């Protein structure tokens, strides 16, 4: 038996699940581990919209500070 991970559009989800429910030996694991709530998505978009250039931090400089501080 093989395992398959599929990404499908939200509006096709019910149709997809209903089709596979009738296939013998199929297990549907419906975990949305990585799903971000809508309120949080909106909050992040608002923060991005209101951010100023001085609010951004260089990723390489941040990693260097972390490595220096913790000895990685």
Descriptive keywords:
mainly alpha; 3 helices; 72 residues
Question: Explain this structure to me?
Answer:
- This protein is an all-alpha fold and 72 residues long.
- Helices cover 47% and strands 0% of the residues.
- The chain contains 3 helices and no strands.
Indicate the mean pLDDT.
88
Number of strands: 0
Poorly predicted regions: none
Q: Choose one word for the global shape.
A: elongated
Structural class: mainly alpha
Helix count, DSSP H or I runs of 4 or more residues: 3
Radius of gyration: 21 Å
Summarize the helices and strands and which ones pair or pack:
Elements (H helix, E strand, L loop, with lengths): L12 H9 L16 H13 L8 H12 L2
What is this entry, summarized?
By secondary structure, the protein is mainly alpha-helical. It is 47% helix and 0% strand.
């Amino acid at each position: 038996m093989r395992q398959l991970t599929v990404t499908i559009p939200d509006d096709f989800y019910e149709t997809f699940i209903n089709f596979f429910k009738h296939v013998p030996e199929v297990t549907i694991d419906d975990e949305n581990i990585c799903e971000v709530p809508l309120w949080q998505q909106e909050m992040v978009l608002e923060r991005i919209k209101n951010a100023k250039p001085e609010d951004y931090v260089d990723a390489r400089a941040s990693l260097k500070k972390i490595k220096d501080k913790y000895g990685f």
